[in-house]
Write a structure and sequence with these properties.
Elements (H helix, E strand, L loop, with lengths): L1 H19 L21 H18 L10 E11 L7 H14 L2 E3 L6 H5 L25 E14 L2 E14 L5 E14 L6
Parallel strand pairs: 1-2, 1-3
Antiparallel strand pairs: 3-4, 4-5
Length: about 200
């Protein structure tokens, strides 16, 4: 009888777990036609990044006269929306595409604390000094990428219109001049009671 109850318990547990399983399927990100969210989502970041990358490269401002790549640093991209979003998602896409273009190399001394900490290994007798970074060997940034993401909402005929604006600038650090600016607007119409945060 105990064996029977044990088998019955295992069978019931298996059935209940199978009933709780959720349906999961992969989305083809290249051909995604699923409904859009009111808030910013991955496709919006991709659209904004791709649009601005194309503009940067078409203008030719990232082509150095000597053919060498610029050293670019990612500065602050402010989130001025009602959402908690990771602005690094936008800057990362742009950074990867620009590096693949061969037009820039990105310095990570601000983002990666080990870049600066590695200099302290010069005083240690525990490390092979041939592998330790020499003084004055860090590549200084020549360009800075900065920007802002904003959100505005309007009510029109019982619906809500949401406008997101991605604004980016590239500044030459040696003289403070902006060598490129771009904007991408994403507009959505949603139900009046839709929330974006």
């Amino acid at each position: 009888m105990k064996k029977y109850l044990m088998y019955l318990s295992v069978a019931l547990l298996s059935i209940s777990l199978a009933g709780c399983a959720t349906k999961t399927q992969l989305i083809d990100t290249e051909n995604d036609t699923t409904a859009r969210a009111a808030g910013l989502e991955g496709r919006d970041f991709e659209d904004a990044a791709n649009s601005m990358i194309a503009d940067m490269l078409e203008m030719g401002t990232l082509s150095k006269p000597n053919g060498q790549p610029y050293i670019l640093m990612i500065s602050r991209i402010a989130n001025d929306t009602m959402q908690r979003i990771d602005v690094d998602e936008l800057s990362k896409s742009i950074r990867i595409a620009l590096m693949k273009s061969g037009k820039v190399r990105v310095t990570a001394f601000q983002e990666d604390s080990m870049v600066m900490k590695a200099g302290s290994l010069r005083q240690s007798k525990e490390f092979n000094q041939a592998n330790v970074r020499k003084k004055g060997s860090l590549a200084a940034p020549e360009l800075s990428l900065s920007g802002k993401i904003t959100q505005r909402e309007f009510k029109i005929d019982g619906d809500k219109r949401i406008e997101y604006r991605f604004s980016l600038s590239i500044t030459e650090l040696s003289n403070g001049l902006t060598i490129w600016e771009g904007e991408k607007k994403i507009k959505k119409i949603v139900d009046e009671d839709a929330v974006t945060w």
